[in-house]
Fold each of these.
Amino acid sequence: MKSLDRNSLEEQTRLVSRYVAGDLSRSERAEFEAWLIASPELAADVEMERRLRRGIASAARRGWLERGVPIERDRGRERHWQIALAASVLVSVGLALSILAPREPASSTGASRSAANGQRVSTVRTVRLSSFRGNGSTPDVSFSLAAAPGALTIEPDVVVLTCEDGAIELECAGGHSPQQPQYAEYEMDVVNRRGGTLAWRSSRQAPVARTQLSFTLRDPGTLDAGNYDVVVRGHSADHAEVVARFWLQVK
Amino acid sequence: MSSLPLDEIERIVAAALTGDRGAESRMLVALRPGVLAVLRFGAFHRWIDAEDLTQETLHIVVERVRARTIDDPRKVFAFAAATARNLALNAARKMLRQQTVVDSELIDELAQNLEMEQSELSDSDDRHLAQAVAELLEELPTERDRQLLTRFYLDGTDKHLLCSELGLSPKHFDRVLMRARTRLRTIIERRAPHLALFPRITSILLPLAMTFTFWVRHFGSW
């Protein structure tokens, strides 16, 4: 360990990101950790590095980063007035039109029926799942057709990190922790248990921030009532494997 | 977080090495966050109870300090880090030995432990954190800094590649990261202080309790 001066501490602070990512060699890590013991300031920095990584991944998962503007900020409240005002104007115009517009003879076409009955609350439901479920007595995810969400996002926590040579170890060569997702890409299938027919297949995706996957099934209300297997499959260049299986129930 | 300066911690440990019991208590308080950090952030953090092992580590460190086999505070820091690492490695080995590991089970175990790590934060805390990070990104002075953070942390783009693409020196890159962490800490302390670092009350009470235990064991009474 170098002398306990501020310059050396600043040198170590530059290593924070590599330390949290598990990129330091065994000797670098030993020295860094001795500094961690000596400096709560450095420990706080490491904690913030972890929070930053997790927070960015979480914000991305919620779609906040793609929009470039975080949602649910205080200024959102200011917008409520504008939205309320706009809604009032729309309602007034709608009322005026319904009173003034000439009336058509009533018709009960299939299209209008389905518009009235089939209208769903356009919400997105997000479910986070750990690995290897689906064998218990209760479904991992369920919804009723009467209250189906507009989209169902499943975030399976199934990506295993391996060493560079693909080995699943606690510690890789050189003292690094595993960093490599086991598979380059993952996809999700929704398979109807009755007849084993494929109801939906996602496109393949690479894990975000090494371990995070997010599959969105648009309009799950179009599925038939019944039980489904939600299968997550990992794909490498020459191999594919089911890495997790969940149970989806549509009532 | 109010933390002691580096040289002050070194002085405290140096005093503890001379047998000063008051300094020993202060040493436990000073070293605890670092030991906990080594255990929480180390290679085996998914397989261990960091709080438990922190106490065990500090126990071993105090005994070594009392035995006067170390004469340099810097060696105490290195010893504490090595002890924490070894205890963590042993705990992880023990945990895996207790299981009959076949491939699928190992994968399952790894996945469950990943889940443990994920659930370290509640949904609401996770949301607070995401909001804090979104606020941080919005506050950044340049689009380039925003790009740097999202591409580095989210896409995993290599530091050198980012530096060359964004026209930054590695030092500037490090500065952006350091500033981001500092700013995030401020935002978190305002929005959700409990996410800032280790709960402060435990960092005071636990070492006091340990000192009490050592004292009673050593002298037979309080």
Amino acid sequence: MNIFVHASGVLLFVASQLAIVTSAGADEVTEKERQAIQSADVYLHVALVRDELELLRFEMGRPSDHQLPIAVSNVAPREVFFQALTLFQKADRLVYEQTRERVDEPAIPQGEILPGHVWQVVDVALQRIRRVKSELGIVEKSAPGVRNADKRPTDVFIAIAQADRQLNLLLERQFAPGDVFKQVTLAMAYSARLLSHFDGAERIAATPAYQRGKQPVDVYHRLVAVLARLQKIAQQSGLAMLTLSDVDDAAEITPSDVYDIASVLVAELAYLHHQLGTVERPLPQHYPGRKFPSDVYQRAGILEAQLTTLQAQVDANPDWLHARLQKRKIAE
Amino acid sequence: MKPLLNFIRAGNLRHRLLRSHLQIALIGVLMIGVALVSIIWLSDTAQRATSERAPMMQASTLTLNGLHRSLAEMRGWVALGDERFREGRHNAWQEEIRPALERMQRLSSNWIDPRNKQQLAQVNKLLAELEELQWWIEDVAQAPGNEPARLTLTRDVEPVAERVLTAMTAMIDEEMANGLGVEHKQQLGMMADFRAAFLHSTVMLSDFVSAAEIHYQQAYYADLDRATERLNSINDRHHLLSAQQQRLILWIQQGFIDYRDFAEQALAQRQSATWDVARHLMATQAVPVARQATRLLQSISAHQQRLMTEEATEVSLLGSIAVWLSLAMISAMMIIASWLSRRSANQIAQPIAVLSQATQAFAEGRLTADIPVTGDDELGQLTAAFNRMRSSLQQGEAALQSKAQHLERSNRELDQFAYVASHDLKAPLRAIANLSRWIEEDLEECLTADTRKQMGLLRGRVHRMEALIEGVLQYSRVGRVALDVGQVDVGRLLSEIVDDLAPPGGVSVEISPDMPRLNASEVRLYQVFASLIGNAIKYRERDDGRVEVSVEERGAFYCFSIADDGPGIDEAFHGKVFQIFQTLQARDTVESTGIGLTLVKKIIEEQGGNITLKSNPGQGATFLFTWPKQPPLQEQ
């Protein structure tokens, strides 16, 4: 199912997804409850996910993740939401591997994304993990932790990223360059949509030369650079975005980590695109087949060129976003 | 400004002529200016048609061609996955569509109608959309995810099916090893049947995913039903299964469920409209966008063609207008120039014509009054000067007429004198001669020889006196008495002269045979030749002699030569021979009046010719004189 469904159907779709989740064990979340959910609640829920994952890891005999938390700051709920989606995707894959069951991905909410929306996605992921627990006959239950009101979206983001890493280690078919390739291609699609608002701008840049022997870390570095460029674009456009520091230890970067940062990129681009208020969505992306980090690196090169073009356009028209919104309002 | 006003007001002839010419030139320049404007208009319209419309249509057509090519190449890539199609699509954009669009953009800079620009902007937007769509289609077309059903088949269905078949094969192998009874054989048959039905179902499923033909789907369901039935049957005889087989049957049952679920998913995906993502995108998005762009491009092309047709008509019309306008202007220019020229000519040439006519009249002696002076320019000044000249000349003429009358009177008195001289003076002379003869006759017997000689000398002097008087009379008549002019055969005239002179036997007169015929007074010519030839004969010292008369042409004159072989004349006397009453020898030696050569000289000069002498003592003398081929006007 297309994750980018039409806006008018989004709420119904979310409701239906929540119904599915509810049937799997979660309580139904009302709009009022969602409004009341804070980052501290989400963090607590993610901690539960991580506890459940630890039970699974133990049962499945898989290695434990010991990577250092990623260095990120200024994270907003929407960015946490997209990170939570990657958690769901990995959880769903785990469920499929263990039970051959699959569910549709939660829809991206229209309008402002709140911690409540993140909580819902984390909850769906939690239910998927519990389904595996059930399948594997694990009866132990994880006890909810203590709520720490100081937790912020950044803390939630880091916690989800760590859960992501552990979850990836549980998978038979771990997140591979092909998955990153698909995410980067989706980011390209968003960039192309953004560039379509500038007359004469090249929407998809020429494909750079293929460079053999690239490692996930190379892709990671490139995507961090792309994210930094995107952050500048956002800043020029009057928007705030998270800040992600690059890593020095190349050995620790896995395709799953690259996938996570690619997802952040998609989240930020989707957010920027959402600011235009247009109903048009980028084309859905499909399984690209087996890909190497060099393929992803090449595609990230296209994305980088697109954002360079976008930055040049924004430099020339700093109030582009405001102008588009005004234009849309007048049209409406 | 002031020099210009001075120039306009200036009345001298130079300025008037300059003004006249400038007026005509100005009209010409104005006409040429109007013609130039029409030609520029015409040229501009034609230029627009050739430099904008046609290139725009061409660019539009090129864009369309590129668009169709890109679609065709994209279809080729989607269908075959050949890299050349991808390159072809890329080239279509790089070499055809983009350059053509840039050209259209450049050409549209002169468009006035904003709707056309909007249309072109729309084309640009659509083509950008199409290019992006093509990129995505190209990207997904050869990816495994392009056919979700096939992906499900290979990624999910086939591994599960393989596990089920492997498990069933293991069960069959065990069953074959264990069972010999009827029930076991039946069980074995069930297992084999399940395996066959299941295996066939996978084939049918694969065929359906490939071809989407309904009979494959029906066959798949039939096989699935048969396999389900056999699996249920095997499970019903659970007691016949070994512990290993029981574990395997559980595995197979779970796998069979997974297989069925995945197969359903693959069937649904294959039946979905998006079973081939690239084709779906092409059909639902790329082709409609391409059609929309095509329609717009065709509309632009048609619009440009319409404009071109309109402009061609306009050019044709303007061409006709320009021709007619030029003709009209030429006619107008001719009329205006003619009118202005005539006016200027009248203003300038009228006084000249008046002056010319006055000059003519003046020449003919009909002008008696002053010509009116019309202005203070050069012509006015000329007229005034003419009037003064006329007045002065007429006064001079009056004086001349007075002098002529006086001269005529003098001539008449001279004629009278000549008459008196010839008559009154000659009469006493003749009386003296007669009386002396009568005295001599009366006194014949008394007269001595000496007296008779003296009487003879007396009469001789009387005759000489008579000859002198006759000579003076003739001299005075030259140039004053008009003589008949007619055709004279000089050769004949010379022969007559020679006959009249009757030269002595030893003297020969040679006349050149090429003597001309000329228009002249025969009397005067006779006088000249007779005097010169007569002198040559008369003044020789020998009994024999030779006189040669020859002629040659010298422009408007004949140059006659009378040469003799006589004693010749010293150069010191060459001037004296033409003086009146001058003789080189005493009159008593050779009887001569001394008037002959003077008369000859006067006659020749009267005709406009001249006479010269070439002679040295002992070498003969040659008189050369020129005579006009036509007589002077007054003589005619």
